[in-house]
Amino acid sequence: STYGNDTQTVLAQNDSLYDVLKALEKNKSILSFSSVSGLIRSKKTQEEKIRVWKQFWSPDKINTTKKNLIENSAQFGFKPTTFSKFYDLLHSDFKPMEVTDFEPIKSFSLDDYIVHDDNGTTITSLVKVDDYHIDALRKQFENLPNTLLIDRQQVNETFLGNLKNDFNSLIGYSLIVVLLILLLFYRSLSLTVVTS
């Protein structure tokens, strides 16, 4: 998880985390991961990608591509207007999207990954890793600012270990209470001991 006060700053941190996780997945250091950064990027990252898009699709390249598509597709019976939606896309003036622009997408729940509250913003990425690589993963992320690694297996083991200890204590307390109740009821230590 990455966290902070400003949503854009947290998104930028999560972009960096996403790039690291992609590299780890490629190196087989992690099995898989799920992150909102595959879809939602910080404004700065989006602006950079839009700049690269505009640089790649120069007016000359657009005109050459359009001309080649019209000439070559005519041989296969396509009309010159067949790819008009594509040409419109090439001439589009893209703007960075806000996080709220993704909320109408029903198949993708932002609430599973992004949390806004009075304390700031938290963005969660889920990582699946085998036992062999978990220590290396912890070391890699331990010094990253505003980044928190939560090991669900470790949390569960700690919780269940404490629950076992608490349960044993509960049994002991229950035994003491039952003995006290028997002692109060029988008013005799010998009868209480024999009964228990």
What report would you give on this structure?
There is one protein chain. The protein is mainly alpha-helical and 196 residues long. It has 7 helices and 5 strands; from the N terminus they run E-H-E-H-H-H-E-E-E-H-H-H. It has helices spanning 7-26, 43-56, 59-74, 84-90, 134-141, 152-186, 189-195, and strands at residues 2-4, 32-34, 114-117, 120-123, 126-128. It has a 3-stranded antiparallel sheet with strand order 1-4-3, covered by helices on one side. The protein has a two-stranded antiparallel sheet with strand order 2-5. Strand 3 and strand 4 (120-123) form a beta hairpin. The radius of gyration is 30 Å and the shape is elongated. The protein starts with a strand and ends with a helix. The mean pLDDT is 86.
Summed up:
55% of the residues lie in helices and 9% in strands. With 196 residues, the chain is mainly alpha-helical.
Strand ordering within the main sheet? 1-4-3
- Count the beta strands: 5
Secondary structure tally, helices = 7
Overall outline: elongated
User: Secondary-structure element order, as H and E?
Assistant: EHEHHHEEEHHH
Given the helix and strand composition, which structural class is it? Answer: mainly alpha
Residue share in β-strands: 5-15%
